[in-house]
Design goal:
With 227 residues, the protein is mainly α. It has three helices and three strands.
């Protein structure tokens, strides 16, 4: 009896220890999942910040392009004004002949350069917008990855909990068997005779055998019966 109590106590202590370890592992898995998601969200926030900076740079490129274009146009106008003043100083009519052609060429080339400045600014802005889109997609991917990591950690925690419950149920079954003396059948046999026949039953192997009754058995059973 004392040995049984000691064995039960050791089993209970071991079950409590294993359950505590499993519970700690479950909590650690869930905490790791939360940390992974928070880290992924932090990375996503950083990518969103980079995207916002890139968009600001794109807008700034457009604004700088407009200012540069405007300054260049002002420079072209000043240059054309200086050319006309020079022609006038030489008594050349700026409304006819080569003077008109010269001024027109200067205005045309100046306009091409101004449009080139606008194009360059648009290209620079496009590059920043591409970067912004890339950062935004990275942010989305990072957040999804965080969700997947946390879900995986939760699944691991659920598996640990399931294993812990299974272990506790197995321990409880073992304790119940130890307490009430249950064990798996080890085999046995019973024997009986009826008439001249015999019956054997083996509980361990679940086999049954009986000998067939003889003629004398039937004769004895029906002796004195009238049909």
């Amino acid at each position: 009896m004392v040995g049984t109590i000691i064995a039960i106590g050791l089993t209970v202590a071991s079950a409590i220890y294993q359950a505590k370890k499993a519970n700690d592992a479950k909590k650690a898995a869930k905490a790791a999942g939360v940390q992974a998601r928070e880290a992924a969200n932090s990375q996503a926030d950083l990518q969103d910040w980079n995207a916002s900076i890139a968009r600001l740079q794109a807008a700034d490129a457009i604004e700088r392009g407009k200012e540069a274009e405007e300054r260049f146009r002002q420079g072209v106008k000043l240059q054309i004004g200086s050319m006309r003043a020079g022609f006038a100083a030489e008594n050349v009519d700026v409304g006819f002949g080569s003077a008109v052609d010269t001024v027109a060429d200067a205005a045309y080339l100046g306009e091409l350069d101004a449009l080139q400045i606008r194009t360059n600014a648009a290209r620079e802005a496009w590059g920043f917008n591409v970067q912004a889109e890339d950062y935004a997609k990275r942010a989305t991917i990072a957040r999804k990855e965080g969700v997947y990591l946390e879900a995986g950690a939760n699944q691991q925690a659920a598996q640990i909990q399931g294993q812990m419950i299974g272990g506790l149920l197995q321990t409880g079954s073992s304790l119940f068997a130890q307490r009430y003396g249950f064990s798996s059948p080890s085999g046995g046999s019973t024997a009986g005779t009826a008439g001249t026949g015999s019956t054997n039953f083996n509980a361990g192997t679940a086999s049954f055998a009986a000998t067939a009754p003889t003629t004398s058995t039937y004769a004895g059973a029906f002796r004195g019966v009238r049909f």
